[in-house]
Task: structure prediction
Amino acid sequence: MFTTVESFVREYELESANTQKLLDALTDESLNQTQVEGYRPLGFIAWHLVHTDRGMLYGTGLTFEAPSASSGPPTQAAAIADAYRSTTKNILNAISTQLTDAKLQELVDMFGLKWTISATLYGYLKHEIHHRGQLTILMRQAGLPVIGMYGPSKEQWAERGMPVPAL
Result:
């Protein structure tokens, strides 16, 4: 969990930059990619990172601008990437100006449970990382390059002149 606002801000800046790289790599055509019939397409999951998570953050009492959760995903990949960029900036500003280190220990109602604001921020971050994993799978299926998050992707090994790890 986070004990200071600054520790969350630093972590979210790093993680959101990685998410932004993935969103910037999407194409309009890739947004319809699904794992199998009847499951959420890539564009829906990408849009979910822009707006739906805000409900979790609003549960902490934070206020910031973000697209409506009831709006459907745009059909242009650049619109999703731009909305994420803007929403991330707004989230970072809200956290930096509306929270204090002491406030991180306050309890809020989250999904019918009592969570500290610190635990909520931690859950928010893990939620984004979870969906980022879904994006990378769907991006591979759509034929898009995947950016490594915590180490090189297969493509990045070759770019660095290193042998790709064996299967």
